[in-house]
Amino acid sequence: MNPKSEEDRIELQDLTIAIGSMTLKNPVMTASGTFGYGEEYAPFVDLNRLGAVVVKGLSLEPRSGNPPPRIMETPSGMLNAVGLQNIGVRDFIARKLPFLRRYDTAVIANIFGETVDEYRQVAEILNGTEGIHAIEVNISCPNVKRGGISFGACPDAAAEITRHIRSETDLPLIVKLTPNVTDIAQIALAVEAAGADAVSLINTVTGMSVDIERRRPHLANVTGGLSGPAIRPIALRMVWQVVRAVKVPVIGIGGIMTASDALEFLITGARAVEIGTANFIQPAATMEILDGIKDYMIRHKIGKITELIGSLDTGTQGNC
Ligand SMILES: Cc1cc2nc3c(=O)[nH]c(=O)nc-3n(C[C@H](O)[C@H](O)[C@H](O)COP(=O)(O)O)c2cc1C
């Protein structure tokens, strides 16, 4: 194949996907909390090439997060207990969003509150803000005492919060789910019925690590959220369960480091993927993943990414 014809084939590829009323140029997004407010990664990543930038979780007022130590490396992953440190939604709009508006990429605001009303107020402030394309609701943070996971672990509470935010905004609404539950599909069904346009999963898996010399937990918060390749098979299994349960698009997250990892999620039925911990190891991971997906599509003669999504063939395999 000569280089020109390969370029032509890449030009002809259609990677666009839809999440509610929002169309993304490709399915590669960043995961909240691992890509700052986008600006921090601009020296390494062409933000114009991303499907979407999902920014660090935003609350009504600024938060300083948990005391250190709050990060610990573990086998094939990391534990974090950052505790949703952020500059607050108003400062984000005033100081960070203008930078992101310069790029031709969707901006998704990840939001967080300690009470239903706080979530509602953050959504209200973002609604109608130029340059915000969707809201991702974090009801799944394991590292805060109030809010977060306490909403995401119960179908009724997850539905209630979704309903409140739905009534506040016309923006596409993505609800981010926690893996720290018995039946994630049940939570997904509850938020779908309450008006979510999509679900994203998974947030981190609650974990712990001990310093045996000092006989103390490594994290000041004692427990933290496990992310990275260690959680990928769990995330993929949960995406598979949720894809089969709901009709709304599912966004896959969890330990995606390479294009092959992303393809596993897309083939299983995820409409898009979010890249998290990989950004800490290789700041340009999202670009490599996007290029790898395109190469795969050329190799397999796939013109549209939508032909690939959900193409998993489980054959007659069952559980033994
Ligand atoms: C340091 C750190 C901070 C995070 N902050 C947020 C956050 O603010 N909001 C959120 O919804 N998820 C947050 N997450 C979870 C990630 O977005 C993602 O769901 C999780 O890390 C699993 O993906 P990964 O294995 O690719 O990192 C954070 C994760 C890490 C490691």
Beta-strand percentage range: 15-25%
Query: Using DSSP, what is the number of strands?
Result: 16
Major β-sheet annotation: 8 strands, parallel
Bound molecules: flavin mononucleotide
Secondary structure: helix percent: 25-40%
Structural class: alpha/beta
Kindly report the name of the CATH homologous superfamily: Aldolase class I
CA-CA gap between termini: 45 Å
The CATH class assignment is Alpha Beta
Mean pLDDT level: 94
How many distinct helices?
A: 11
Provide a quick synopsis of the model:
The chain has 320 residues and is an alpha/beta fold. It contains 11 helices and 16 strands. 34% of the residues lie in helices and 19% in strands.
Question: What's the arrangement of secondary structure elements?
Answer:
Layout lengths: L2 H10 L4 E3 L2 E3 L3 E3 L21 E3 L16 E4 L2 E4 L8 H13 L4 E6 L4 H11 L7 E5 L10 H4 L2 H14 L4 E4 L7 H10 L4 E4 L3 E4 L1 E2 L4 E2 L5 E5 L4 H14 L4 E4 L5 H10 L3 E4 L2 H4 L3 H15 L5 H4 L12
Parallel strand pairs: 3-16, 4-7, 7-8, 8-9, 9-10, 10-15, 15-16
Antiparallel strand pairs: 1-2, 5-6, 6-14, 11-14, 12-13
Helix pairs in contact: 3-5, 5-6, 6-7, 7-8, 8-10
The site of flavin mononucleotide has 24 residues, from loops.
